[in-house]
Design brief:
It is built from two helices and nine strands. The protein is of the alpha+beta class. The strands form two sheets. Strands 4, 5, 6, 8 and 9 form a five-stranded antiparallel beta sheet that branches. A four-stranded antiparallel beta sheet has the order 1-2-3-7, with no helix packed on it.
């Protein structure tokens, strides 16, 4: 009887650990996709990390998507980043053959930033400028804290403790 009880506990423990592992896998934000002002393209934007902190290196990932939501190659664009009325970063008109670009940037202070992507050419053909704007929150302290591996270990130890205590009390009943 106790041998099968131990097997059940081992299976229960293994199942608990699998569930905790699934729950502890870090979540990543999905990119934000917005149409340009005239609707010719969709622009996908994803900062990495999703909520940057001042002083940390951030990647601003931008993809230009056609109507089928696949990457559109050969785009002429420029990017500007503002905080309030102050422009903190800007590019001249630049070309991406791949249709996607990652811009490294380091935010200097916490707050809300506005990134504007302006498209001025597609497939080597000039178009009237079209824009899409995205909001970036830097150093947002009101977000839900992420729990690291220590929280997972605490849950695992607690689960094992509950199983051991329950088995010992069943043996003495």
């Amino acid at each position: 009887m106790s041998r099968s009880g131990v097997k059940v506990s081992a299976i229960g423990l293994l199942g608990s650990l699998v569930i905790m592992t699934i729950l502890m896998v870090p979540a990543y934000a999905d990119p934000t996709i917005k149409p340009t002002s005239a609707g010719t393209l969709n622009i996908s934007f994803e900062p990495n990390p999703a909520t940057p902190n001042p002083g940390d290196q951030t990647e601003l990932k931008i993809s230009f998507l056609n109507k089928q939501n696949t990457v559109q190659q050969h785009i002429d664009y420029k990017v500007s980043l503002t905080q309030g009325d102050n422009q903190v970063f800007g590019t001249p008109v630049t070309h991406t053959a791949e249709g996607a670009v990652t811009i490294p940037f380091q935010f200097q202070s916490a707050g809300t930033y506005q990134m504007t992507v302006q498209v001025v050419g597609i497939l080597f053909q000039p178009i009237p400028p079209e824009t899409a704007s995205f909001t970036i929150n830097v150093g947002n302290t009101s977000s839900v804290p992420e729990f690291g591996p220590i929280a997972g270990m605490i849950i695992a130890v607690s689960t094992i403790g509950v199983i051991i205590v329950s088995k010992k009390t069943q043996l003495h009943s």
